[in-house]
Fold this sequence. Notes:
- The chain is an alpha/beta fold.
- Helix content is 47%, strand content 19%.
- It has a single domain (3-164), classed as Maf protein, CATH 3.90.950.
- Strands 2-1-3-4-5 form a 5-stranded mixed sheet, with helices on both faces.
Amino acid sequence: MFADDAELLHRIAEALIQRGEQLGTAESCTGGLIAAACTSLAGSSAWFERGVVTYSNEAKAELLGVPMALIEAHGAVSREVAEHMACGLLAKAPIDWALSVTGIAGPTGGSADKPVGTVWLALARAGQPARVWRELFSGDRQAVRAQTLTSGLKALHQALQAAEA
Length: 165
């Protein structure tokens, strides 16, 4: 975790605590990295409710309600799956915000249309449409995962700021 990530986490924690809201994560390619970063802060139980690692397609379906037909149609690394992951966690957990990630961290697993470094992220808030975006990161597996963490934290921080306005 970079220093900027730590600062973002502190700001996210403060905003969620002030609002009395809870965060949950649904992670695939990051394998719990975002949840680990959140829980690295003392007192994170005041704002971080749970993290779910759904690395396999079966886990995405079983734990988050992502339809297998959707995975088969679009692939696990897709806008549709990222959105369903976030919305599925939001529906199943006592949280206000859900951040999901699914991607190809490498070094293998990429294809022409989904190269290594392709990551889909989704941020869902209760009662609002999810924000879903794609990133194409460079570097090795560790770099792709670290950049995914930063992208997710930045988006969550921006969403919390916008919600306060």
